[in-house]
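Dear Dr. H.,

I hope your travels went smoothly. While you were away I took the liberty of generating a structure for the chain from your last submission, since the lab meeting agenda had it listed for discussion. I wanted you to have the full record in hand beforehand rather than looking at slides cold. The sequence, exactly as received, is reproduced here:
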Amino acid sequence: MTLRHVVTWKLSGESREARDAQASEIIAAIRPLAETVPTVRSLAVHRNELFDGDNWDVTLIADFDDADGLAVYATHPDHLVAVAVVKRHAAGRVATDFEL
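The corresponding predicted structure, in token form, is as follows:
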């Protein structure tokens, strides 16, 4: 089984430039988790490129072997540091988890 974890954030910046800076900071905080959290099987995080203002701003797609792997990720100290970065900039969050 593979469990896919998808999270998308709407950022709080009032301009495209502000949201770009926020997105860059978030991406820089999240990308290393692919190497530092042992239960991550794959991880991608990207800035939205089209329809700025209408679409949400940053999306994370991460794969784990199972829900236990996701739980390890959720409580890993490096992930908690990244969460703090995201919370400084996120105005909204949506997420879904499903088996592939």
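Two observations you may find useful: The chain has one domain: 3-99. The chain is about 40% helix and 30% strand.

With kind regards,
E. W.
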